[in-house]
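[Primary structure, fold]
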Amino acid sequence: MVFGSSTGFGDLNMHTNVHSLHPSPGPKHRAAFHKRLWRPYNSSASAQRGEAGLPKVSEFFGISIYLYWGDHEPAHFHARYAGFKASIAIADLTLLRGELPPRALGLVMEWAAIHQGDLQDAWRRVINHEPPGSIEPLR
């Protein structure tokens, strides 16, 4: 069977340039794309990076707390523990998405209640693509 004949692929053949079918985004979209992916690179920021370049703001009892660069509203943080993931609103500490085992969720909520002001400050910084800093772990 030959591409471009009666296969329904139209003008496609083995020599079609794939990039011509999917042009790269224009300068406006490219700038927005790079802004979303921007990560500060200095020793203090790279020390705060956790999984996949995400800023880790705290870690305690095997639970990691992250904020995402340029994340969406409402202000929230991400908690990860033993393969579980959860997003928790900073303002009222409600579970937005995901799940954690009950004991881990209780520890996260206790920590977040203690550091709610620090979380709000870190959220403001990370939304502006600044290093969020670190927050004391639960002891």
About this structure: Strands lie at 56-60, 63-66, 76-81, 84-89, 95-98. Residues 61 and 138 are 8 Å apart (CA to CA). Confidence is low (pLDDT under 50) at residues 1-24, 28-49. The first strand starts at residue 56 and ends at 60.
